[in-house]
Write a structure and sequence with these properties.
0% strand, mainly alpha
Length: 53
């Protein structure tokens, strides 16, 4: 279904762009929210770092 080259097509593209911007911003938010969870999984304590290998 091609998008028409008139005002209605421009409004449709604007609506699609508006909705996709929320999807992308939400995805970035989920990615940023995952960083503290990943930090807990890879937690290191000082004692394990001070021991010789």
């Amino acid at each position: 279904m091609p998008i028409q080259d008139n005002v209605y097509g421009a409004l449709l593209i604007s609506a699609i762009d508006f909705i996709l911007s929320f999807v992308i911003i939400g995805g970035i938010g989920l990615l940023l929210a995952a960083f503290p969870l990943l930090n807990r999984l890879g937690k290191l304590d000082d004692e394990s770092l001070k021991k010789p290998h």
